[in-house]
Amino acid sequence: MADAPGAPGTGAAWTTGGKEGFGTATGAASKVWFTLGQGISHEIYYPTVDVANVQDLQYVVSDGAGFTRLERDHTTKQLVLTDPRSLSYRQINTATDGRYRITKTHTADPARSTVLIQTRFEVLSGGPLQLYALYNPSLNNSGMGDTGATSGGQLVASDGPVSSALASSTGFVKATSGYSGTASDGYVDLSGDHVLGAQYDSASTPGNLVQLGQIPVGTDTTFTLALGFGGDRGAASANASASLAGGFAAADTAYRSGWSGYLSSLAAVPRSITGAGLTTQYNVALMTLKAHEDKTYPGANVASLTNPWGEAKDANTTGDCGYHAVWSRDLYQVSTAQIAAGDSAAADRSVDYLFTVQQRPDGSFPQNTRLDGTNCWTSLQMDEVAFPIVLAWQLGRFDAGMWGKVKKSADFLVAHGPSTPQERWEENGGYSPSTIAAEIAGLICAADVAERNGDTASAARYRETADRWQAQVNAWTFTTSGPLGDGRYFHRIDGNGAPNDGQNVFLQNGGGNHDERAIIDAGFLDLVRLGVKPAADPEVAASLPEVDSTLKVDTPNGPMWYRYNHDGYGETASGGPYTGAGVGRLWPLLTGERGEYELANGRPATTHLSAMAASANPGFLIPEQVWDRQSAGGFTFGEGTGAATPLAWSMAQFVRLAHSIDAGAPVETPSVVKQRYSAACTGVSTKFTVNATTSWGQNIFVVGDRPELGAWNPANAVPLSSVGYPLWTVNVTLPKGTAFRYKYIRKEGGAVTWESGADRVGAASSGCTSAVNDTWRP
């Protein structure tokens, strides 16, 4: 028995986040998830969706004398969804020189944790060729702790609680285990003289293991490769052997039946989908959402079975969660789509997971976690505290047990909001329109749950806080002196709730340092989508020209939007992977959010639905980001990048938009929130804010042409509060739809000083709240 030298080998990495296909069986007996990209197998997860175990698995072709070629690098590639009602994918890779073709059909054995790859190898020209399976395990979330061996004709490997076994229905002619990049690496050996010389029966020192097995082939050979997993090598080997014994056809038939049965259990496909010929896209989206749920921790859906730009990520240790972690915000997006599609049971499991596993004793929720609830990233995002409350309300979870948990989170919002350490893009803190929208919706939903449980005091406190924040959101986040457009718009985030003070914001993804008024995103649309502002709110509408002129790109697939300007989260300018600084690209989910806003205003959103569908790859997976300019560097304008594909949030947004189009309005909008802040208000609560420096004994007032503003009589002027000095504020309720003129005055004893300049002009919108933000004119 020869033990491989060269441990631990070269450093390990993961693969690109741009997956072309993926799959898992629907039942819990098979706890394995496979991903596909670049014509090969990428990360495979076992026993949970947050444990990656494979860097890649691919074939190597050699003529034994003149060449040795990796399947990934030397073929033209085609990917096909073989069943419109199953996550069943086939990869067809043809040699660039036309000498051979490799056709692979993938499935997961529903009865056990084995991935099966039915393979047809065809020699198209040039005589006999040799075929090898090249397996690069990265067991237990790390590429640097694996050991391996040849055992019973299989290549087995292990790292702690995870083991794998690679087997072929034909057996292996030769097999070896070694360390990546060293002389014991079978691929390195084979590449040298195109003959596999040294064979090592074991690689017993932990390191970056590489395993290579030669498969006997002729000019047209079909066989099955099995990669089994288990808690030890014996269990993994038993799974691979049993799956091979059962045969690919039987496993694949059961696999497809599971997915078809799941789709049959759901609500009817929306007319917006069937009428546009998008049924397969819709079904894949729903299957994607289900496939991201773990089978050991029910209700825990990871954001994506990917590690964005994983090829540039260190895989030597277990520290990087990638996107295989649980965010309560993403889980809310997934669950609201599942509710609309008729899978409320899945959403109920997610609510139970959120409030049982993720909720902290103080009522907060972490930025994200591994499946067992331990922190992955460590910040706090207040929208992620609010969304679980909204989801519980949407599911009618009003029982006393749930109320006790909801109360903790609602109390946390009251105590710590509305400012947030991070908003939904996870990079900056302050007053965020999207976060505040979620917080208000969460409090109003919590108030309803409180009232149903007899806690009228908490209900009143939540509503009072929500109403106050709803009245002030414009004053905190709507600038009237911005450098974009006419200067009047919601900006992305404000550090101190003073949207005209020009405070700088440092974008923590390499985007640089900028005046916060110059950074805009479309997160304020959540104010409408969550019912916090009426659909036709004038400040929301006034912000759209700046959003579209700054963030919108008309791609070949339809309109797409950036997260925000100066975003650094994306490929570098030359197309290299993001490693801390880059150029933010377009996000298809934002197209869906804009579509929901358009629907709320009675306008069509079919263009937005079609654009989202068109951004999907041949595997019908909708990406996190798409390329934002003319095709270059291997990227296609309007199609996915090396970020996360699929992103569960993107797939959920597509499903939810489709149902919203059929409903004629956003289906996620909590009715209890919309009812409170829609046309039911009798006037417009207008918040006046002015930056004015005063001396002791001086006070600031507002006076104008309306009776509510004192009818130009200084004696009846409205006093402003100096609590936020030098900002002076007051809320005045004005009749809807009225224009008004006003100025500020300073009073000291009996003396009155008017600010200089012409009368200021304002308007009480058709919504329930508005704001003006001014600076005293000496």
From TrEMBL:
Enzyme Commission designation: 3.2.1.1
Reactions this protein catalyses: Endohydrolysis of (1->4)-alpha-D-glucosidic linkages in polysaccharides containing three or more (1->4)-alpha-linked D-glucose units
Domain CBM20: 678-778
Positions with biased composition (Low complexity): 1-17
Region (Disordered): 1-20
Keywords: Glycosidase, Hydrolase
SUPFAM superfamilies, per database record: Galactose mutarotase-like, Six-hairpin glycosidases, Starch-binding domain-like
Domain of life: Bacteria
CDD domains: CBM20_alpha_amylase, GH15_N
Enzyme class at the top of the EC tree: hydrolase
Protein name, entry field: alpha-amylase
Species this protein is from: Amycolatopsis oliviviridis
